[in-house]
Specification:
It contains 12 helices and 25 strands. By secondary structure, the chain is of the alpha+beta class. Helix 3 (117-130) packs across helix 12 and helix 7 crosses helix 8. The radius of gyration is 26 Å and the shape is elongated.
Length: 454
């Protein structure tokens, strides 16, 4: 397949008819031996139609009618896209068309997509640089009986329109409930089978699912603390007897919300819970009293119980690490970034939403109380992140293109897995970069190009 980048322009002299005409640079037509004496197929996402090609002297341009531009969803302004010609099927493709699935769109000026509006703008800029079109839609915008989706393109100019089913769907839905809507699942299945759409980050992972899967991945087992779905009082008692500190984590929680820290004290046991407003603590004279107090939570079966770790600290505050691991244009997992997150004062979770601070791995490890090899810490963290990403890919039968992997170092320098997030945050609070377009955003576009074969 031959590929290049072209500027796509609408041309008032091209009129709609039963057979569309497109004007393409003569140098491309000659080099790729594109027929001009008969109809060939044009593809843009799910859109397929017969066209006739006319060679034109303009360089690296594709000129199309207003009607065709509307069908492709590319608007009336010039846009740079990738163009490919497949001689065997006599097909010209333009794109890639990337659809980003979000949970909501607002009417608030400058905040069209809520808290990730800035990310959406950054992704739009990255697509423009790479030669791709990205539009944003919600499950409510899907019309299951049609080959189009209603959506938004960010400006300038911003517009709402009807778009072909994209070559690639990037799933940014933030909950399992949304992911599992029957009508949405039916659409995604149809898009994959009928339109050959690639969909990544298609599943919201929960903590227990991740640990159960990775127990069967040989390379990952060394990073796993003891962890179970907490379903009984006896199980909680066993873990509390075995370890001085254990954590109860909501299976589908995020941002450190709802985590309970259970620790053995001189006089009994203590439960600490963390929230945005601070930490609350309760003391119990015995383990039985503690278990009785939280038995309602256990019966709901919504918690994972995990071995407490002797984490490194800076100034008495625990530290963990967030690795963003993404697939690149050659379909390989790469570590895009790792940052250290230090918990706020009197906190046991490091999330920025609860007062944590972000810094570089090297600076933080050097300041920490680690006894082990500080110089090799960054390398060990990267190796663990890549191994765990491959384990998720191998053992969970869904398509992921990026993973947020939370890791820890204990005071002996050993790496541990805390959790994996298949919909990592796109706020800029956890990224240390001055780049206008973050490497993590560019990588999303590069992987989409790989999937679209454009």
């Amino acid at each position: 397949m031959s590929k290049t980048k072209v500027v796509v322009r609408t041309h008032p002299g091209i009129h709609a008819s039963s057979e569309q005409t497109i004007l393409l640079s003569e140098s491309i037509v000659r080099r790729w031996r594109i027929p001009t004496d008969r109809s060939i197929q044009l593809r843009c996402g799910s859109l397929k139609l017969k066209v006739r090609v006319t060679a034109t002297s303009t360089r690296n341009e594709l000129r199309i009618s207003y009607q065709l531009a509307h069908q492709c969803g590319i608007g009336t302004q010039p846009i740079t896209l990738r163009l490919a010609f497949q001689a065997a099927s006599q097909t010209i493709r333009i794109g890639p068309i990337i659809g980003v699935m979000l949970n909501r769109v607002t009417n608030t000026p400058g905040r069209r997509f809520g808290i990730i509006t800035a990310f959406c703008r950054e992704l739009t800029d990255a697509c423009r640089h790479a030669g791709a079109l990205v539009y944003f839609f919600t499950p409510d915008d899907i019309r299951s009986s049609q080959s189009t989706i209603e959506g938004w393109v960010m400006g300038p100019p911003e517009y709402h329109g009807s778009f072909p089913i994209p070559d690639v769907i990037y799933n940014r839905l933030p909950s399992r409930k949304l992911d599992n809507e029957p009508s949405l699942q039916q659409f995604l299945k149809s898009a994959k089978t009928h339109w050959h759409t690639s969909i990544f980050n298609e599943k919201y992972l929960d903590k227990t699912e991740v640990f159960q899967a990775l127990r069967h991945h040989l390379g990952s087992t060394r990073y796993l603390p003891e962890s179970h779905a907490c379903q009984s009082a006896n199980q909680l008692k066993m873990m509390c007897t075995k370890y001085r500190v254990v954590f109860l984590k909501p299976i589908t929680g995020s941002l450190g919300k709802g985590i309970l820290r259970i620790s053995k004290t001189r006089s009994g046991y203590q439960i600490s819970s963390s929230s945005v407003v601070g930490i609350s603590k309760k003391e119990y004279a015995s383990l039985n009293a503690l278990v009785t107090a939280i038995s309602g939570k256990l019966r709901a079966g919504k918690y994972q119980i995990q071995q407490g770790l002797n984490l490194i600290e800076v100034g008495g505050r625990p530290v963990d690490f967030r690795a963003l691991v993404q697939k690149n244009i050659t379909n390989r997992w790469k570590v895009t970034s790792i940052v250290a997150r230090t918990a706020g004062n009197n906190r046991f979770v490091s999330n920025v939403a609860q007062g944590g601070t972000v810094s570089t791995v090297g600076q933080t490890v050097n300041k920490s109380n680690m006894n082990g090899n500080k110089k090799g810490a960054s390398t060990r963290l990267q190796k663990a992140a890549l191994t765990i990403a491959r384990g998720i890919d191998t053992k969970i039968p869904f398509h992921f293109g990026e993973l947020g992997i939370d890791l820890a170092l204990d005071q002996d320098g050993r790496v541990w897995l805390l959790e994996v997030n298949s919909k990592p945050s796109k706020n800029d609070s956890s990224i240390l970069t001055d780049s206008a377009i973050r490497p993590s955003v560019k990588q999303v576009v590069q992987y989409a190009r790989y999937l679209a074969r454009l």
